[in-house]
Amino acid sequence: MFPEIARDDVFRLETRRLWLRWPRGSDAPAVSALAGDWGVARWTALIPHPYTIETAERCILAARAGNARGSSLRFALTLKDFPRKFVGMAGIDATDDGPRLGFWLGRPYAGRGLMSEAAQALADALFRITEAEELSTVILTDNAASRAVLEKCGFVESERFETGFGRHADSPVVRMTLRRDEWQASTGDVLRPALAFDRALA
Ligand SMILES: CC(C)(COP(=O)(O)OP(=O)(O)OC[C@H]1O[C@@H](n2cnc3c(N)ncnc32)[C@H](O)[C@@H]1OP(=O)(O)O)[C@@H](O)C(=O)NCCC(=O)NCCS
């Protein structure tokens, strides 16, 4: 799904306060500590619990492999003021239902608007470098913080299900979706640089 430009670990995104870069093996202790917090994991369908450093190392390797194949774009989030400070992860995976957004932030860093910056940067990247028509994610119906992040980026509720998947197999969930035309209307973007780039090479 993602073009050549995103398939190398030099590819990164910048927001006002964050770098979004490919995860590295050295992030594993922070991933294990921050995502190992049940207060984070319980809101997600798939974050393992407990989350050992070895599990984190395997997940990071899998994320890098998916990024290199172009089937995902998963990033580690670090603070620009303290670039070695890993604070969470956010990414997009290709699924049978189209591109799917996922994110989590370490609890010490929550409530400062950081994930809203990261989610917006990911949506911008998806629509600018791929031809995807929409980006969606499925969250627990009572995940108010995630819903607020998504709504700030223009996502709207598109479907409701009585049950989710993974850890949420017994809980009601909602799908939140951002369509390209809505994203375009809010950003004023008219160009698809990936397409312009391909044409330039042709
Ligand atoms: C969801 C999460 C990423 C939010 O990160 P964050 O950086 O704190 O998010 P932001 O600060 O950008 O925005 C949070 C918004 O939620 C709102 N919020 C937080 N808790 C809330 C609650 N209990 N009820 C209502 N709104 C809430 C905040 O007020 C804020 O909105 P505002 O900017 O309009 O005031 C973080 O809480 C997290 O990692 N949660 C667990 C994992 C998860 O749920 N992942 C998504 C599902 S896969």
Description of the structure:
There is one protein chain. With 202 residues, the chain is α+β, with helices and mostly antiparallel strands. It has a single domain (4-201), classed as Aminopeptidase. It contains seven helices and eight strands. It has helices at residues 28-35, 38-41, 53-69, 114-129, 144-152, 180-187, 193-201; strands at 13-14, 18-21, 72-79, 82-95, 98-105, 134-140, 156-161, 173-179. It has a five-stranded antiparallel sheet with strand order 1-2-3-4-5, with helices on both faces. The chain has a three-stranded antiparallel sheet with strand order 6-8-7. β4 and β5 form a beta hairpin. The longest helix is centred in the first third of the chain and has 17 residues, at 53-69. Bound molecules: coenzyme A. Residues 40, 43-44, 102-105, 110-116, 139, 143-146, 148-149 line the site of coenzyme A. Coenzyme A binds next to β5, α4 and α5.
- Count of structural domains: 1
Ligand species: coenzyme A
Average predicted confidence as pLDDT: 94
Shape: globular
CATH class call: Alpha Beta
| Number of extended strands | 8
- Poorly predicted runs of 5 or more residues: none
Largest sheet: 5 strands, antiparallel
Quote the distance from N terminus to C terminus. Answer: 19 Å
Write the CATH architecture name: 3-Layer(aba) Sandwich
SS-based structural class? alpha+beta
Provide the CATH superfamily.
Gcn5-related N-acetyltransferase (GNAT)
Share of residues in helices? 25-40%
What amount of the residues lies in strands? Answer: 25-35%
